[in-house]
Amino acid sequence: MNAPVKIETTLKDWETDQEVRWCPGCGDYAILKAVQRTLPQLGADPANTVFISGIGCSSRFPYYVESYGFHTIHGRAPAFATGAKLANPDLDIWLVTGDGDGLSIGGNHLMHVLRRNVNMQIMLFNNEIYGLTKGQASPTSREGTKSPSTPIGSYDHPARPAAFALGAGARFVGRGFDVSKHLPDVLKAAHAHEGAAFIEIFQNCIVYNKDVFNDFAAPKGAEDQQLWLENGKPMLFAKDAKGIALNRDTLNLEVVDVVDGDWEAAGVIVHDVTNRSIAHMLVEMPFGPFPMALGVLYDDPRPTFEAAVLAEKAAASAGKEANLAKLLGMGQTWTVDGTAQDPV
Asked: 73: phi > 0 → left, psi -120 to 50 → alpha, else beta; which?
């Protein structure tokens, strides 16, 4: 949870005078607008908001949001964001990264910001390709993906960002896609979470990996392949004709038919955002036999990193005088007399 003092703004207040420079039709445009529409609804203050990015197409984001911004170095945005949060815990920090920036050179840094639970929103734009460097296979590219770096087809098993986040200890994991009308709801839930909130956003790279997510993210006709999760609601999809159930014998998820709307008789699970075991199953569901799980998959807060740091600092300094001269004079000290020309 960030920005305790809410102010009134409009979408225009969050737009900059910079020319937005992504390829025509890039999914980043839709994500930018979703964020700019969401910020006024949160009551966010541009003077207290910081967008921090690494390197890649997604990392141009800070130029296009009228707030503080920091376009940092490849893979290191989480380290910069952690430093900013510790220096000023009241800042509302949004970290923007991509599948290459965040899961290749930056995988180590992303893991640590998640396990530490630094209070910020982390948006990872996943287009399953390196867009800025002209279309090489990325850590999330599917097996068989043909690219300049894998001309015959990639043989790497792809990383799964949401599974990575859960494995790293993230306490909030959400999913959405660029043109979805539900994306702002996921962003709001992430902002309300106290701690590191990870959102994987499927993003269409119109040039190097066009329409790779169309099976579940096409503007029209893909709704039956989307499982939008809502806390306390049954896991239904395909116009509520199908649902997700837990096979108690194999302890695996399975798709079941829902007859006459009786989802309870079909054994459909009711989504509990605090159930980490089910969240792991949802992010590992293979698309095709299963729908794509979207929305808030997991949300179970715990104390934040910066709160622990501040508490430790307060405890260490309690009852002590802030005296630099005294500190420097502690322990073994000595005085040097004489000069270089006339040493003692």
From this structure: beta
